[in-house]
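Tutorial handout. Part one gives the primary structure; part two gives the three-dimensional structure as tokens.
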Amino acid sequence: MSGKNSIKVACIQMSISDCNKLCNIEKALAMAKDAASTGSELLVFPEVFSTGFCYDNIEISGETENGDTIRDMCAFSKEHGCAMVFSIIEKQMSSTGLEYYNLGVCVEDGYVVGTYRKTHPFKREKQYFSAGDSIIPIRLPIRKLTIGLQICYEIRFPEVSRKLALMGSDILITIAEFPSPRGHIWRSLAIARAIENQIPHIACNRVGEGSDSSFFGGSIIVDQLGDVMEEAGDHETVIIGTIDLERTNRIRDEISVFDDRRTILY
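Part two.
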């Protein structure tokens, strides 16, 4: 578990201009600066925030870990002394040719401390993205905090968040481009994943119009009991909350869901 008692977190709910990397990064960092000025230490962004799902120009939008997005996010996190969670379109040359992944990234104080390739691509994504094959939490060494990262569609899979919780995650984070009109589904799942794992959950969604879909926002910060701490509407905004990390153990002692599991049956 974490070495910290609490942490101030921020979700950057932003609209995305598909395939316009420069514009998106500039906007994201401007919003991040506002969040950092409040003392927020952990900043969370929507899925593939710098490009959107730029399918028609995926070869140009795709990046390596040395690309523009990660470089700029590392520089910001170093300057402001914070951690940041987001995803990019990753491109990688393999023995069979160029492959693409939806790569979740966590940077802390200027360095990439962990990555996660989305393991459950959704519908059209399957035509372009390879699936990751590993679900492992990401450790923030400076903050002594463990992040359980999942991406969009994976909020529908309780197995993903449960595995991340069992492996010692302090906070569950979902980054997404969850489209309209599924706002009630998104909200219900975000709260459920927190309740069933007795873990705080930051669920950060895109807002606005995209090339193929519209996005309702609805980003949310939920505590270990499933109570909503902060929630966004359908516009660009930054929501901020302070998470009590010590509360997890107290709640699990009171309601011993993990101890009472009968894994021999399931």
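Part three, for discussion. The chain has one domain: 6-255. The longest helix spans residues 21-36.
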